[in-house]
Specification:
Elements: H1 4-13, E1 17-21, H2 25-33, E2 38-41, H3 45-48, H4 60-73, E3 78-82, H5 91-103, E4 109-113, H6 119-127, E5 132-137, H7 143-146, H8 156-172, E6 176-180, H9 184-193, E7 198-201, E8 209-212, H10 214-217, H11 240-252
Parallel strand pairs: 1-2, 1-8, 2-3, 3-4, 4-5, 5-6, 6-7, 7-8
Length: about 270
């Protein structure tokens, strides 16, 4: 069975961690059989499963339901469940909802978006034995503040802020970190500075692992202009099983992501 100790060992050994989203037992089983170590039950289900325009409408009941589905298909993978919008509005609310994801859903860890504003919540959850994964860079739950899904950390001030948040999250007790849509140079620096594993999505190849939305990497999402980090692994394959196996192999061998799949900016600040 994959545990947080397994993921730490992979980072220490320099072996890439392969993660994939899943929302049901069937995809979870295929992912696990293909060698995926981490299955993320993401609030992205609001867009690819429910058909919403963002992740904001997703509820804690939705996440509990889909996490339980995934656990019935994946017995050995490490399952991380998203804390949906407003489910972590306070430390006490977050604790109750994280408890549901673990007790009813079977999650081994919960993921929440945000940096400095979430430190007290991270400390509170971990003090009660709830493993936490942080999420920095592009924060999909903040889409109405951002206005669009765009790369974060492009200027020195913003990059420094993300780096500081990453360090603070680890110090607060986070045991895993997802970096979304940030320049690869920044992601590399964060991965080097943290002792916890860093999983990237649109964050270059130098992080400790990769995650993609399963619908995206199979070319099933309704994306008129997909992000540059999205690659259709079903192309040239004869089954979903072989497509996911191809993704795992590409991550493990560092053939994915390439520079063409990454955001490259010349950053000029103390950390990079």
């Amino acid at each position: 069975m994959i545990t947080i100790k397994t993921l730490n060992q992979l980072k220490e050994q320099g072996d890439k961690i392969c993660a994939l989203t899943s929302y049901d037992a069937s995809f979870a089983a295929i992912a696990e059989e293909s060698g995926v170590e981490v299955i993320l039950v993401g609030d992205s289900l609001g867009m690819v499963v429910q058909g919403h325009g963002s992740t904001v409408p997703v509820t804690i009941d939705d996440l509990v339901y889909h996490t339980a589905n995934v656990k019935r298909g994946a017995y050995n993978a490490f399952v991380v469940a998203d804390m949906p919008f407003m489910s972590d509005a306070s430390a006490e609310i977050a604790l109750l909802n994280a408890g549901r994801l673990m007790q009813e859903g079977g999650a081994q860890m919960v993921k929440l978006e945000g940096g400095t504003n979430k430190l007290a919540i991270v400390k509170h959850l971990t003090s009660y034995g709830v493993p936490v994964c942080g999420h920095l860079g592009l924060l999909p739950q903040s889409i109405h503040q951002l206005g669009s899904y765009q790369v974060q950390g492009k200027d020195p001030h913003q990059a420094e802020s993300i780096l500081e948040d990453a360090v603070a999250l680890e110090q607060a007790g986070a045991q895993l970190l997802v970096l979304e849509c940030v320049p690869s140079q920044l992601a590399n620096e964060i991965s080097l500075q943290l002792s916890i594993p860093v999983i990237g999505i649109g964050a270059g190849v130098e992080v400790d692992g990769q995650v993609l939305v399963v619908y995206d990497m199979l070319g099933l999402s309704d994306l008129n202009s997909p992000p540059r980090f999205v690659r259709n692994f079903l192309e040239g394959q004869d089954s979903i099983q072989s497509a996911i196996a191809s993704y795992v192999n590409a991550v493990k061998s560092e053939q994915y992501p390439t520079e063409a799949d990454s955001y490259l900016f010349v950053l000029d600040y103390a950390g990079c």
